[in-house]
Amino acid sequence: MGLRKPNYVYHGSPKNIKGKFIPKIPRDLGKNNHNIMNGVYASSARNKAIGMAVCGAKGVISSGMGFDIGEKRKGVIYEGWPVQKYVYLYIFDSETFERYPKNSTQFVSMKAVKPVKVEKFETKNYLKLVRKASKKELHNFHKKYGVKK
Protein backbone atom coordinates (compact mmCIF):
# COMPACT_ATOMS: atom_id res chain seq x y z
CA MET A 1 0.00 0.00 0.00
CA GLY A 2 1.52 3.31 -1.11
CA LEU A 3 1.15 6.83 0.14
CA ARG A 4 -2.13 8.56 -0.57
CA LYS A 5 -2.03 11.11 -3.36
CA PRO A 6 -3.12 14.59 -2.24
CA ASN A 7 -5.88 16.49 -4.05
CA TYR A 8 -3.56 19.43 -4.67
CA VAL A 9 0.18 20.00 -5.07
CA TYR A 10 2.10 23.26 -4.77
CA HIS A 11 4.84 25.00 -6.72
CA GLY A 12 6.62 28.02 -5.25
CA SER A 13 8.29 30.56 -7.47
CA PRO A 14 9.74 34.04 -7.24
CA LYS A 15 8.13 34.70 -10.65
CA ASN A 16 4.57 35.75 -11.42
CA ILE A 17 3.85 33.16 -14.12
CA LYS A 18 0.78 33.53 -16.33
CA GLY A 19 -0.83 30.58 -18.10
CA LYS A 20 0.36 26.98 -18.21
CA PHE A 21 3.53 25.56 -16.75
CA ILE A 22 5.51 23.68 -19.41
CA PRO A 23 7.54 20.56 -18.42
CA LYS A 24 11.28 21.22 -18.23
CA ILE A 25 14.39 19.98 -16.42
CA PRO A 26 14.92 21.88 -13.13
CA ARG A 27 17.93 24.18 -12.81
CA ASP A 28 19.67 22.40 -9.93
CA LEU A 29 23.32 22.56 -9.05
CA GLY A 30 24.82 19.27 -10.10
CA LYS A 31 22.77 16.39 -11.44
CA ASN A 32 20.31 15.27 -8.76
CA ASN A 33 19.03 11.84 -9.74
CA HIS A 34 15.46 12.83 -8.89
CA ASN A 35 15.48 15.96 -11.09
CA ILE A 36 16.66 14.66 -14.44
CA MET A 37 13.41 14.45 -16.36
CA ASN A 38 11.32 17.05 -18.12
CA GLY A 39 8.38 17.84 -15.91
CA VAL A 40 6.49 20.37 -13.86
CA TYR A 41 7.73 19.88 -10.30
CA ALA A 42 5.54 20.49 -7.26
CA SER A 43 5.24 19.39 -3.64
CA SER A 44 2.49 18.10 -1.39
CA ALA A 45 4.11 20.20 1.37
CA ARG A 46 2.73 23.72 1.00
CA ASN A 47 5.39 25.37 3.22
CA LYS A 48 8.20 23.57 1.36
CA ALA A 49 6.89 25.08 -1.89
CA ILE A 50 6.75 28.57 -0.35
CA GLY A 51 10.27 27.99 1.03
CA MET A 52 11.44 27.11 -2.49
CA ALA A 53 10.01 30.39 -3.76
CA VAL A 54 11.94 32.26 -1.06
CA CYS A 55 15.10 30.26 -1.91
CA GLY A 56 14.74 31.35 -5.54
CA ALA A 57 14.04 35.01 -4.83
CA LYS A 58 16.25 37.80 -6.16
CA GLY A 59 19.31 38.21 -3.97
CA VAL A 60 19.76 34.48 -3.38
CA ILE A 61 22.75 33.11 -5.26
CA SER A 62 22.61 29.48 -4.14
CA SER A 63 20.25 27.49 -1.92
CA GLY A 64 18.76 24.06 -1.31
CA MET A 65 15.68 22.34 0.12
CA GLY A 66 15.00 18.72 1.06
CA PHE A 67 11.77 16.96 0.11
CA ASP A 68 12.06 13.60 1.90
CA ILE A 69 8.87 12.53 3.67
CA GLY A 70 8.83 13.69 7.28
CA GLU A 71 11.74 16.07 6.76
CA LYS A 72 11.21 19.23 8.80
CA ARG A 73 14.38 20.96 7.66
CA LYS A 74 14.18 24.56 6.47
CA GLY A 75 15.51 25.72 3.13
CA VAL A 76 19.22 26.51 3.36
CA ILE A 77 20.63 29.63 1.73
CA TYR A 78 24.33 29.21 1.02
CA GLU A 79 25.04 32.51 -0.66
CA GLY A 80 23.06 35.75 -0.75
CA TRP A 81 19.74 36.56 0.94
CA PRO A 82 16.25 37.30 -0.45
CA VAL A 83 15.67 40.94 -1.38
CA GLN A 84 12.54 40.40 -3.49
CA LYS A 85 9.30 41.85 -2.06
CA TYR A 86 6.87 39.10 -3.18
CA VAL A 87 6.90 35.38 -4.02
CA TYR A 88 4.14 33.20 -5.48
CA LEU A 89 2.52 29.88 -4.69
CA TYR A 90 0.88 27.98 -7.57
CA ILE A 91 -1.73 25.41 -6.63
CA PHE A 92 -2.36 22.54 -9.06
CA ASP A 93 -4.94 19.77 -9.17
CA SER A 94 -2.81 16.66 -8.64
CA GLU A 95 -4.51 14.63 -11.40
CA THR A 96 -1.53 14.58 -13.80
CA PHE A 97 1.14 14.55 -11.05
CA GLU A 98 2.94 11.46 -9.73
CA ARG A 99 5.13 11.20 -6.63
CA TYR A 100 8.78 11.23 -7.68
CA PRO A 101 10.92 9.93 -6.12
CA LYS A 102 8.74 7.49 -4.20
CA ASN A 103 9.82 8.46 -0.66
CA SER A 104 9.33 12.18 -1.23
CA THR A 105 6.85 15.04 -0.96
CA GLN A 106 7.92 15.97 -4.50
CA PHE A 107 5.58 15.34 -7.44
CA VAL A 108 6.07 15.72 -11.17
CA SER A 109 3.70 16.12 -14.11
CA MET A 110 4.91 15.24 -17.58
CA LYS A 111 2.10 17.35 -19.06
CA ALA A 112 1.70 21.11 -19.21
CA VAL A 113 -0.55 22.21 -16.34
CA LYS A 114 -2.41 25.36 -15.41
CA PRO A 115 -2.73 26.35 -11.74
CA VAL A 116 -6.19 26.33 -10.21
CA LYS A 117 -5.13 29.16 -7.92
CA VAL A 118 -2.19 31.54 -7.41
CA GLU A 119 -1.33 33.13 -4.06
CA LYS A 120 1.04 36.08 -3.59
CA PHE A 121 3.05 36.43 -0.38
CA GLU A 122 5.35 39.06 1.08
CA THR A 123 8.74 37.39 1.19
CA LYS A 124 9.63 38.90 4.58
CA ASN A 125 6.71 37.03 6.19
CA TYR A 126 8.12 33.64 5.10
CA LEU A 127 11.81 34.01 5.98
CA LYS A 128 11.05 31.59 8.84
CA LEU A 129 11.01 28.82 6.18
CA VAL A 130 14.70 29.37 5.34
CA ARG A 131 17.97 29.89 7.17
CA LYS A 132 21.54 30.82 6.38
CA ALA A 133 23.94 27.91 5.98
CA SER A 134 26.25 27.16 8.88
CA LYS A 135 30.01 27.58 8.34
CA LYS A 136 30.35 23.81 8.03
CA GLU A 137 27.50 23.57 5.49
CA LEU A 138 28.98 26.45 3.50
CA HIS A 139 32.42 24.79 3.53
CA ASN A 140 30.91 21.48 2.31
CA PHE A 141 28.86 23.31 -0.34
CA HIS A 142 31.96 25.08 -1.71
CA LYS A 143 33.93 21.84 -1.60
CA LYS A 144 31.24 20.05 -3.62
CA TYR A 145 30.32 22.79 -6.12
CA GLY A 146 33.28 25.16 -6.08
CA VAL A 147 33.40 28.75 -4.95
CA LYS A 148 31.58 31.31 -7.12
CA LYS A 149 33.62 34.42 -7.85
Summary, kept brief:
This protein is an alpha+beta fold and 149 residues long. The protein contains two helices and nine strands; from the N terminus they run ββαβββββββα.
Structure description:
There is one protein chain. With 149 residues, this protein is α+β, with helices and mostly antiparallel strands. The chain has two helices and nine strands, in the order ββαβββββββα. It has helices at 46-55, 135-145, and strands at residues 8-13, 40-43, 60-64, 75-80, 86-93, 97-99, 106-109, 117-122, 130-132. The strands form three sheets. It has a three-stranded antiparallel sheet. It has a three-stranded antiparallel sheet with strand order 2-7-6. It starts with 7 loop residues before the first strand and ends with a helix. The model has no long low-confidence stretch (mean pLDDT 89).
